[in-house]
């Protein structure tokens, strides 16, 4: 019997407030470029006030897993999302967007808490630097999980950012337990090198229950403890049965069901890298859940990620279905240096797919 929802995501529900700034302004914030920094409400409010004094910000419902779920849904999949929201205007904004998109939202409203917000700073090179206040999303506890949510899912997707707090890590572990008890495969994104360096012990425990891992080369190298990309990839193949390993402008390597494929990067005029990894995950999961072979799914994911970095914001403004192409647009790439790079991965155990 088919399940009602193809994919359920779990993450920090955030409202993104995005600013386009120069490098000098970024230096004045003392934030780590291209990374994510957690902050309490007063700290974030102080930065926000400074930015709004001279810049205009753009609002969008966000959070890593939320972006992936939205992309998956707009490709044509059926999806749900688990998190928590505050009883405020930002919470209404977030819930309203998900309702309009037709995404099932399992998000209790937490009285007395603000909805989580993320300041996204985009510099002229397209890199995004984030400061996040988790607020209500960090109040989500395992007791709020409903096992029945997983009765109607084909896959479960978790963002690594949930592991950065005790409440989040505990709830993520319980959610994964509910999914595995119902034979629902689990996908996890490492999300950021910051997550890897601060939550490695938790990751080691959770990876034993993960069917498909999404990560980039920086996150992988941080987890393995090496500067060698090939070594990081090979080591991760021993940790998880299926892997989507992105390499920025050098494409990606995908390994599912014991078969690996090298995926090229597509040319892009980079404006804003915010949401590129989330889009990649959404497109790849859409392909895998719809029976595509890994090369087609990987190329669709790579192409979709290339298109979203050409615009501002983590959400694609055009028709997502056109990103999947008709097969022709995803069969070739004009960058021979990417196509010519390959190596043999290690064998890994096989998981449900």
Question: Would you mind describing this structure in some detail?
Answer:
There is one protein chain. The protein is of the alpha/beta class and about 350 residues long. It has one domain: Ribokinase (UDP-N-acetylmuramoyl-L-alanine:D-glutamate ligase). Helices cover about 35% and strands about 20% of the residues. The chain has a 9-stranded mixed sheet, sandwiched between helices. A 5-stranded mixed sheet has the order 3-10-9-2-4. The protein has a two-stranded parallel ribbon with strand order 6-8. Helix 5 (about 165-180) links the parallel strand 11 (about 155-160) and strand 12 (about 185-190). Helix 3 (about 65-75) crosses helix 10 (about 275-290) and helix 8 crosses helix 9. The radius of gyration is 19 Å and the shape is globular. The model is unreliable at about 325-353 (pLDDT under 50).
- Characterize the biggest β-sheet: 9 strands, mixed
- Any idea what the CATH superfamily is called? Ribokinase
How far apart the termini lie comes to 16 Å
CATH class: Alpha Beta
The sequence of SSEs as H and E is EEHEHEHEEHEEEEEHEHHEHHEEEHHHH
- Detail the poorly predicted runs: 326-353
Number of contiguous helices: 13
What is the CATH topology assignment?
A: UDP-N-acetylmuramoyl-L-alanine:D-glutamate ligase
Give the amount of beta strand, in percent. Answer: 15-25%
Q: Per CATH, which architecture? A: 3-Layer(aba) Sandwich
- How many E strands? 16
Oligomer: single chain
Radius of gyration: 19 Å
Q: Based on helices, strands and strand pairing, what is the structural class?
A: alpha/beta
How many structurally independent domains? 1
Residue-averaged pLDDT: 88
What is the approximate shape? Answer: globular
